[in-house]
Amino acid sequence: xxxxxxxxxxxxxxxxxxxxxxxxxxxxxxxxxxxxxxxxxxxxxxxxxxxxxxxxxxxxxxxxxxxxxxxxxxxxxxxxxxxxxxxxxxxxxxxxxxxxxxxxxxxxxxxxxxxxxxxxxxxxxxxxxxxxxxxxxxxxxxxxxxxxxxxxxxxxx
Length: 157
Hints:
Largest sheet: 6 strands, mixed
Shape: globular
CATH topology: Nuclear Transport Factor 2, Chain: A
CATH class: Alpha Beta
CATH architecture: Roll
Helix content: 25-40%
Order of helices and strands: HHHEEHEEEE
Strand order of the largest sheet: 2-1-6-5-4-3
Number of helices: 4
Oligomer: single chain
Radius of gyration: 16 Å
Distance between the termini: 30 Å
Number of strands: 6
Number of domains: 1
């Protein structure tokens, strides 16, 4: 994975330089985004809606599979509350790419795998998804999740 990430960094650095982002700024932004992704994984596994919401932009959009988009702070918060009332996740993210594409926008592609437990029954099984995050740099300089979509990679039952 480290060699893939290094290759991705090299390619994305070339893109970033043409988009007006210095290599040092690109690497700093990328590090901040990696931290947000790590914090998101921790919050997801802790079923911690307030911690998740700290990572989203105020106008963020959550696009879960088999559901309508949840747009804006209140809708995203309600969606995560519902998710965490319904299931408990224990997953690990594999970050496959992070690209800063302008001074204010970036995206990341990840895969996650682990276990999901249905809270009502206690039944559990494998959980695996592919995810796409779009990040927006806020006026304070923090990177926040602007859009997040995922789909399962588990085979159909």
